[in-house]
Amino acid sequence: MQVTMSVNGAEVSREIEARLLLVHFLRDHLGLTGTHWGCDTSNCGTCVVLVDDEPVKSCTMLAAMAGGHDVRTVEGLEQDGVLDPLQRGFMECHGLQCGFCTPGMLMTTRALLDRNPDPTDHEIREAISGQICRCTGYATIVRSVQWAAAEQAGIRTSLPEQDDSRASSAVGGAS
Amino acid sequence: MQVPAPFEYERATSVDQAIGLLDRLGDTARLVAGGHSLLPMMKLRLANFEYLIDINDLSDVLGYITVEPTQIRIGAMARHRELLESAELGRAFPIFADAEKVIADPVVRNRGTLGGSLCQADPSEDLSAVCTTLNASCVIRGRDGDRVVTMEEFHRGPYETAVGDAEMLTEVRFPLRPNGASAYEKVERRAGDWAVVSSGAAVWLDGDVIADARVGLAAVGPNTAGLPEISAMLTGQRPSEELYEQAGIIAARSCNPVTDMRGSEEYKRHLAKELTRRALRRSVNRINEGS
Ligand SMILES: Cc1cc2nc3c(=O)[nH]c(=O)nc-3n(C[C@H](O)[C@H](O)[C@H](O)COP(=O)(O)OP(=O)(O)OC[C@H]3O[C@@H](n4cnc5c(N)ncnc54)[C@H](O)[C@@H]3O)c2cc1C
Ligand code: FES
Ligand code: FES
Asked: What is the value of pTM for the model shown?
């Protein structure tokens, strides 16, 4: 069957088997191997991608089900050569060691910060509770997300110097 | 790599079109909602179907939570997250938020649906216990229209429901009664896991006397079970610790847990008792706090 969807903003269309899982579509058909594939049983969360801005375990969704929807993977976080604040946070605060869980952690926490720009430690832990990290013990992941939240807030509060009207709406939208 | 056996995929464009497809394809076809029970089973080849009919495009028509004066109606495609985040539902039935907070994890909750949960009819499934506790009824649609069944009629055994091959669960209805509250207690081995045992309770007061009370247990028998004996014992009484204790004893005695990797039969009976007691206590406290 033919499936067409948007992946990181670009429309892609491929002939696939209906039983193909989204994770394998992304990795094997599109070559986007940033999305990892781990437990295969909806438990570890390393395969999380955003579908219409919501985190979804891509090992438990058919590629066919994503047809017509917007999929965003870890490759889509970087914009014009600038890393996402979360990617920088994970570097600054050692949010990864082996990096296996990282793509899923980044996508879930990207969705978290989009909904809740100033999460508590508890809210971060809750958001990633469907994801397993065997290396970090989670403390540095939580710290990395806090770093990114502060960084984003910093970007917003530094805006007034450039453009007052834009800054006030950006801050309003974030609260 | 776990891959389902080959099948054909179709998207439902309306409830009636989906039922028409089911009618034509018979038991070789299955609906897929959130897919978070069906796809893992198909990946393990515990379930094999020739056709999957994707009903996610019906989220707009079947994803509602509608509060009416005497009932709340919830569409089969309402997702776990929507049930957790609905303030209106939380006010009327705090048991929903209690349960949803401990069903799977937030990412799974973005996909899993009320309808899929009930139709999966897993003995450990939490929302079935919630629906049983709240005396919900299920609207099943077929070619000849709707029929409405109680939760007792809906569940026929483990993984078996009253929904026929050419039928679909479209809505679950929850009667609203004044001066009541509810609660859910679950023990799990780790965050996001299925229940070792869970217990739901709902209590309605008339003055300081219990007008009605219901308890529903999960993971202690072939289906989530309501416990009419507890309802009969509590009705007409004043809430008290002794009463919750007696209700717990009935719960422990009436359930049918089996020893498995989640715990021994004895431990599960202990949990049935303790969790029933806590759920009743919390329900009554919530009524008193609200008034
Ligand atoms: C890692 C993990 C942990 C979980 N933990 C828990 C937990 O702690 N507690 C818990 O209760 N659940 C848990 N679940 C199950 C989860 O809640 C599922 O989402 C739910 O059981 C099924 O919902 P679904 O929409 O995904 O159904 P699907 O998988 O799409 O469907 C399940 C079955 O229902 C049928 N069906 C679906 N919708 C309809 C309909 N409208 N009419 C007729 N038939 C229909 C399908 O044909 C299929 O047979 C967990 C799941 C996972 C993956
Ligand atoms: S590979 Fe999808 S949750 Fe582990
Ligand atoms: S960094 Fe190794 S699993 Fe998380």
From this structure: 0.94
